[in-house]
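WARN retry 2 of 3 for item q-0093 after timeout on previous attempt; input resubmitted unchanged.
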Amino acid sequence: LAANAQFALFFPEKRPFFLEGADILSSPFNGAIYTRSITDPAWGARLTRRFDTSDFTFLTARDDGKGLILLPNALNTDFATQDTKSQASIFRYRTHNGTWSAGALITDRSYESAARLPAAYNRVIGTDFVWRPSREARVRGQVMVSDTKDPRNPRGDLPRTDTAALLDYFYRDAVWNFEGGVERVGRGFRADNGFFSQVGYTNVYQTFQRKWLEVGPFTEVSPYVSLTYKADPDGRVIYQQTVPGVFLSAARNTNIGIEVRPNTLVRFRNDGNPLKRDQFFAYIERSPGTWLSSYYIEAAVGDRADVANNANRRGYYIGANATLRLSNRWE
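OK item q-0093 returned
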């Protein structure tokens, strides 16, 4: 599935042991903790505790290895095979009081030594906050520091210690929706118990949306424009786009999105120039009834990335999923 693609693909966790307290593990950086990085657990132990104003969870697992270790950079994700066993440990704490919540995380991945491969480790420590000054507004931030000692990384010029930081906001009322933020991830940042498919960039993004209710057959009609600018540490463009679109909602939980993506710039190689890409994108999701409880279909037509050949090609993408409820017991 990842062939001829720039970055590793993110998949949700499905194993019940790792899903316990999943809400506690969440943070502004979606990939700060990613339990699917524990690919072949021999054993695991977990302690989760919830109080009135705080929660914490501690997880440790022995991973027998042979999975992939992400070695990200600004333009693609490299991989290394976990040839030795490792111990993966994750601690996450959150406290919440009224309009504020704050959290901390500590993760450690320690790899055993093997022939021609010394012991290695990756450790991350971080803190985050969420502030909700009103029912319409939210501000979030997170800072993490990683320390990595691993000879498997082929790029020897990377700093051993580096940081990742994020600050974003969200505002929504009956008429307007504004959201945006800035994030920076250093070249040497790595989170082996997380999911960072890209590092070495600064990303600035913003969305403006205006809503109209009860327009013809639609319960909501909301045109919007999204802006994104991502650059490497030298200031060169990695990704840049201006996307106008419209969101429509109707009965039976029907949501429709339509976007025009003209003049998007994307760079695949360090020594290459950004390539221009034009696309048309649309999706629909709906909950028709009991038997077909939901479905989602999306499609993109226009320029598609040919990463291996550093080019854009004409093509299309179609993806779909559905939930079938065959009875009260089968889904």
